[in-house]
UniProtKB/TrEMBL annotation:
<keyword id="KW-0378">Hydrolase</keyword>
<dbReference type="InterPro" id="IPR023214">
    <property type="entry name" value="HAD_sf"/>
</dbReference>
<dbReference type="InterPro" id="IPR036412">
    <property type="entry name" value="HAD-like_sf"/>
</dbReference>
<dbReference type="Pfam" id="PF00702">
    <property type="entry name" value="Hydrolase"/>
</dbReference>
<dbReference type="InterPro" id="IPR023198">
    <property type="entry name" value="PGP-like_dom2"/>
</dbReference>
<dbReference type="GO" id="GO:0050308">
    <property type="term" value="F:sugar-phosphatase activity"/>
</dbReference>
<dbReference type="InterPro" id="IPR051806">
    <property type="entry name" value="HAD-like_SPP"/>
</dbReference>
<protein>
    <submittedName>
        <fullName>HAD-IA family hydrolase</fullName>
    </submittedName>
</protein>
<dbReference type="InterPro" id="IPR006439">
    <property type="entry name" value="HAD-SF_hydro_IA"/>
</dbReference>
C-alpha cells in the first residue's frame, strides 16, 4: 500500500471505534435494548455507531417523544459506564496519542464525560487536554457541531483539521465540517473517508514547518 500524506494543523479524534474498541459492550447494551422494543438487533447496530444514544433512538423509534428517548438514554449511559468488560485500545492508539503530545489535537466524542473517562481508562489511554463530549454540543453527529467546536477550541480553521473516525455518522459530520477524514477500521470503508486504515499502527504524525504531516499507510 502506498502511503498517503495529509498536511494539517490539528487532529480531531473520535473515541469509540477509533481509539477504543468498545464494540463488545455496545453490542450487549443495544441488543438488550432492541429486544425490549421488539426491534431487529442487526438493524439497530447499523444505526447506533457514532451517534448519541437519544439520536439513535429518534431514528429507530421516530414516533416516540424525545423526552422518553432522553430518559432512556440516561439509563443506558449509566449501564455503559459501569460495563467496561472487553473494552480495549484500538491497535496503535497508545503510541498514536503519545506521538501527539504537545501537538494540537482534541477528542470529539458522542459519549458523555463519565463514559469517556471510563472507556479511555479501561483501554489504558490518556485523555487529551481538549475534549468535546455529549454535554458540549446541542446536536449529535452526523451534525458537524462537535468537530467545529473542537477546531474552534484549538483555534484552528476547519479546513486545516483532519478527523479520525470509524462510523458513518462521524465521517458525515467531519465532511459537513469541511474537514478531511481518515477512516479507521472496516466499518469506515463504506462511508467515503479520504483514506482508510485498518488501525492506528498504520498512522505516523510528524511536526514540520509549523504544520502536521500525517502519514497514513505504506510500509
Amino acid at each position: 500500500m502506498t502511503a498517503t500524506v495529509l498536511t494539517a494543523r490539528a487532529l480531531l479524534l473520535d473515541m469509540d471505534g477509533t481509539l477504543v474498541n468498545s464494540d463488545a459492550v455496545v453490542e450487549r447494551i443495544w441488543r438488550r435494548w432492541s429486544e425490549r422494543h421488539g426491534l431487529d438487533g442487526d438493524e439497530v447496530m447499523q444505526v447506533v455507531h457514532g451517534r448519541q444514544g437519544h439520536a439513535s433512538m429518534a431514528v429507530l423509534l421516530p414516533d416516540r417523544p424525545m423526552k422518553q428517548n432522553l430518559a432512556d438514554n440516561a439509563r443506558m449511559l449509566a449501564e455503559e459506564t459501569a460495563d467496561t468488560e472487553g473494552v480495549v485500545e484500538i491497535p496503535g492508539a497508545a503510541a498514536f496519542l503519545a506521538s501527539l503530545q504537545g501537538l494540537p489535537h482534541a477528542l470529539v466524542t458522542s459519549a458523555d464525560v463519565a463514559l469517556t473517562t471510563a472507556r479511555m481508562a479501561a483501554a489504558g489511554l490518556p485523555l487529551p487536554a481538549v475534549r468535546v463530549t455529549a454535554e458540549s454540543v446541542g446536536a449529535s453527529k452526523p451534525d458537524p457541531e462537535g468537530f467545529l467546536k473542537g477546531a474552534a477550541e484549538l483555534g484552528i480553521a476547519p479546513a486545516d483539521c483532519v478527523v479520525f473516525e470509524d462510523s458513518g455518522a462521524g465521517i458525515a459530520a467531519g465532511r459537513a465540517a469541511g474537514m478531511r477524514v481518515v477512516g479507521v477500521g472496516a466499518r469506515a470503508a463504506v462511508h467515503g473517508p479520504d483514506v482508510v486504515v485498518r488501525d492506528l499502527t498504520a498512522v505516523r504524525v510528524e511536526k514540520a514547518d509549523g504544520s502536521l504531516r500525517v502519514r497514513v499507510g505504506g510500509a
